[in-house]
């Protein structure tokens, strides 16, 4: 059986990224796919980009990866841009938007946010019609042809909220976030396991993994670098709530 670690939303948090990669390595998993948002929020965007390029077989583009190079007067974004440098910014803009693969006879599609756009957010509690639209063939997925097969399994990141749902015979899952979880104060990722060579249905599983990491070290790293918007970032890491606020 082949295992794939699917990670997402690193957001420049190298403390969390290192903990997750250590866990993946302990399990003997060598195939890693990243679903974007390598940068922003946390202090180590350049290091996160370099590490993901080294460790991941495939990386898709997230919304932060897409807009981070756009002209801006926002001091926080400019701080991240200056640290990333031109070569990394160009690299992020060139990342693909989605990837398809087969495992245990199932077509699996992976992207950052939704089949509509890397900026279109779909939470696990959205209406069923919105969640079923995640399986659609679109220009973003590179399969806009109505005759193309739709995926049996869709995985994504973006919402920083890990889950697995069975929807009308299909499976929708979210990896959660490595560097900025907004459900539990632990890094999250997913493991896919199945038969890579099979064309017919074989056993298949999705496992969601939680990895504790040193949150206070991540906050100290941001403090030492003088990162803007530090208070909001620290609250999110410590509470697993957006800006530290309850929904």
From TrEMBL:
Gene3D superfamilies: 3.60.21.10. It comes from the Bacteria. SUPFAM superfamilies: Metallo-dependent phosphatases. It holds the Pfam family Metallophos_2. InterPro entries: Ap4A_hydrolase (IPR050126), Calcineurin-like_PHP_lpxH (IPR024654), Metallo-depent_PP-like (IPR029052), Pesterase_MJ0912 (IPR011152). PANTHER family: BLL5683 PROTEIN, METALLOPHOSPHOESTERASE. This is Metallophosphoesterase family protein. It comes from Paenibacillus chartarius.
């Amino acid at each position: 059986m082949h295992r794939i670690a699917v990670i997402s939303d690193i957001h420049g948090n190298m403390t969390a990224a290192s903990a997750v990669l250590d866990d993946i390595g302990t399990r003997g998993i060598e195939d890693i796919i990243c679903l974007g948002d390598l940068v922003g929020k946390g202090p180590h965007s350049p290091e996160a980009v370099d590490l993901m390029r080294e460790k991941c077989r495939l990386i898709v583009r997230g919304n932060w990866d897409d807009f981070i190079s756009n002209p801006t007067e926002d001091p926080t974004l400019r701080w991240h841009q200056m640290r990333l440098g031109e070569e990394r910014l160009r690299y992020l803009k060139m990342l693909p938007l989605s990837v398809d693969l087969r495992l245990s006879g199932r077509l699996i599609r992976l992207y950052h946010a939704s089949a509509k756009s890397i900026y279109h957010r779909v939470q696990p509690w959205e209406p069923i019609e919105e969640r079923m639209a995640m399986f659609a063939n679109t220009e973003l997925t590179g399969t806009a042809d109505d005759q193309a097969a739709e995926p049996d399994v869709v995985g994504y990141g973006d919402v920083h909220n890990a889950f697995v749902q069975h929807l009308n015979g299909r499976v929708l899952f979210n990896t959660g976030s490595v560097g900025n979880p907004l459900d539990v104060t632990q890094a999250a990722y997913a493991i896919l396991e199945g038969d890579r060579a099979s064309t017919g249905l074989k056993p298949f599983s999705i496992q969601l993994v939680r990895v504790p990491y040193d949150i206070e070290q991540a906050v100290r790293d941001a403090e030492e670098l003088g990162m803007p918007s530090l208070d909001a970032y620290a609250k999110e890491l410590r509470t697993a709530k957006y800006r530290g606020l309850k929904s």
